[in-house]
């Protein structure tokens, strides 16, 4: 378990590392596959969130998922992508977190994901934004470079019955 005091020194509030939905490239499930292909090509990300008309996360889509729909054994038919919708793909299930998630849980989920979808709650899944692995690693890196063991009060992270001791 990561001590909450140490965790707060790395990320005090998830607002600090949240990329708001307004600043995230995402698709609606009713968008055509050709639209999805164009968006993914422009943003240069390998995968982006997909939301429904109520701004609820329904999955993640990649450029490979869309291109596979255009390719057959005999032909590549990009016109086919105009008539198919994002919601007809087998979308990848995203990893969800809420704004109350702790750093340890976030780190655990980021091991296998480049980003986590932040939702209002796990029931509604209203999309608030994302937290990226890159952003969390930058925070940890900054913490490690600005913090010296001499600056940490050992009793901050030890049982309450110990005296304050400074590491020398």
Task: Tell me the layout of helices and strands.
Blueprint (H helix, E strand, L loop, with lengths): L3 H7 L8 E2 L6 E2 L4 H11 L3 E5 L5 E6 H8 L25 E2 L5 H8 L4 E5 L7 E6 H14 L22
Parallel strand pairs: 2-3, 5-6
Antiparallel strand pairs: 1-7, 3-4, 6-7
Molecular structure report:
The structure is a single chain. The chain has a single domain, classed as CBS-domain. It is built from five helices and seven strands. The chain is elongated and about 65 Å long. By secondary structure, it is α/β, with parallel strands linked by helices. The chain has helices spanning 4-10, 33-43, 63-70, 103-110, 133-146; strands at residues 19-20, 27-28, 47-51, 57-62, 96-97, 115-119, 127-132. Strands 1-7-6-5 form a four-stranded mixed β-sheet. The protein has a three-stranded mixed β-sheet with strand order 2-3-4.
At the third CATH level, what is the topology name? Answer: CBS-domain
Major sheet: arrangement of strands: 1-7-6-5
CATH architecture: Roll
Assign an overall shape: elongated
Total domain modules = 1
- Report the top-level CATH class: Alpha Beta
Rounded mean pLDDT is 89
**In angstroms, what separates the terminal alpha carbons?**
25 Å
Helicity level, as a percent range? Answer: 25-40%
Protein name: CBS domain-containing protein
Pfam family, one: CBS
InterPro entries: CBS_CbpB, CBS_dom, CBS_dom_sf
Domain CBS: 92-140
